[in-house]
Design a protein that fits this description.
Layout lengths: L13 H10 L3 E2 L1 E6 L5 E6 L3 E5 L2 E8 L5 H6 L2 E6 L5 H6 L13 E3 L5 E3 L4 E13 L2 E13 L7 E3 L2 E3 L6
Antiparallel strand pairs: 1-11, 2-3, 2-6, 4-5, 5-10, 6-9, 7-8, 9-10, 11-12
EC number: 1.-.-.-
Organism: Lysinimonas soli
Protein name: Flavin reductase family protein
Length: 171
């Protein structure tokens, strides 16, 4: 008889089922930046970015309303959505740190409307928030793309099993 592999985390309730299952869903990585109510840069990594429509150009992302960046997203009209490539892995890791450390360093500069703009990303979009839809302790945010630019192409950056990867990396 085969031995049971006890090294895998076990599902014990609805929250662990959610967390363990979604860790196995590979997702593209983006960063959303804004200015907080105090004028300081705010931002976070997101794996929930999705296109909503091409005409007019709209996208959505989700976030927890207890997240440190929520006050900025809740109280601003504009954000910058950055699409990351593998060369932006360090920036993704930086933007996943404690909020007080996310904008330390040279990985960003003020961009359109004074919003934090990450350097050397494959693409970025200036977006106007057109809807915030609270759901339990989270929110779905709908944005309309107003401007943007393409940077140099790059291999996609993926988030899977709580780590950043490039396509073809082995788990």
């Amino acid at each position: 008889m085969d031995a049971v592999d006890n090294s895998e985390p076990q599902i014990t309730d609805d929250v662990s089922a959610f967390k363990l299952a979604f860790r196995r869903l590979a997702a593209g990585v983006s960063v959303i930046t804004a200015l907080g109510p105090d004028g300081r840069p705010a931002g976070f990594t997101a794996t929930s970015l999705a296109s909503l429509a091409a005409d007019p150009p709209m996208a959505t992302f989700n976030m927890a309303r207890k997240a440190s960046a929520w006050p900025a997203i809740e109280q601003t009209d504009h954000v910058i959505v950055h699409l990351l490539g593998i060369r932006n892995r360090a920036a993704a890791e930086q933007l996943s740190l404690d909020a007080s450390q996310r904008f330390e360093g040279e990985h960003w500069a003020p961009g359109p409307l004074g919003l934090p703009l990450l350097r050397d990303v494959p693409a970025w979009m200036l977006c106007r928030i057109i809807g915030r839809y609270p759901v339990e302790q989270s929110a779905a945010i709908v944005v309309r793309i107003e401007d943007g630019a393409l940077g140099e192409p790059d291999v996609p950056l993926l988030y899977h099993e709580r780590q950043y990867w490039k396509p073809g990396d082995r788990v």
